[in-house]
Write the structure tokens for this entry.
Amino acid sequence: MSHLAWAGQAYPAFSVAPMLDVTDRHFRYFLRLLSRQTLLYSEMVTTGALLYGKQPERYLDFSAEEQPVALQLGGSDPKALAECAQRAEQWGYAEVNLNVGCPSDRVQNNKIGACLMAEPVLVAACFQAMQAATSLPVTIKCRIGIDDQDEYQHLEDFITQVAAAGCQIFIVHARKAWLKGLSPKENREVPPLNYQRVYQLKREHPDLVIALNGGLTDLDQCQTALEQVDSVMLGRAIWQHPWLLAQVDAQIFAGPESSLTQHQAIQAYLPYVEQRLLAGDRFNPMLRPLLGVFQGVRGAKQFRRYLSEQGHRAGAGPEVIEQALALVPSSLD
């Protein structure tokens, strides 16, 4: 395995994927209560939103407790990406990542995401501009291919050209992206995953850090994958079952096991909720990280329903969370 220095240490073996409308500061703060070592990612932020948006700070702001946290950027203009990479460093992020994997039509039209895999020379130029602008690690998140690029050699050519520009860390989603004919939702299931292609990439480039993303649902799968690659990234599995993260420090990082119960973790989240309400944040989005915490536990359905029904009411606050908690039997009872 590679041991490239990343933020002064080896690259983290486990991360939570950037997910639009999911990995906001509230979700990241709650996840950090469950795992001290996992690398957390922001939602993808476009260069246009940061450079020309009315409130760029709302995309950048985060709590110090979230660290390590990476900022994912969407864009294809080297100069704009370089300026945004500088902002990432100024705001205190641990890493800046370029999205070369999103298959959405909306981002393709702006030359963002997976369509850039067809232009490795441009991606290499973007990387070089970003890395020249910041001392942070600059990483690339890509697919194993796009459209008719369905051979290992296509992936190999892309990685080789971008690595020649200096990139040493690649997060590879092990599913090809179809840029036409499939929605992003459909592209999460079709075409099939191909982990072997990512494993081959690591074997042939032992000097690079290769992280595997796509379809992983439990920590046993992650540990098997880590025999072949340097790191694993989970997305939807953590969104649907965030409590999985409470096991990561012990099982993946060989650290101490989390001592928190689900009830205790949510109680520990309440001071943050109060703080963000005072700062003017809306209450309802702060409930989303909690909806899957009790998955498979008696009372989980009632907990979710109560949050959903009460969270949007005017004046709702932390007491709604406490009342919902009372609907789920505590393991300490």
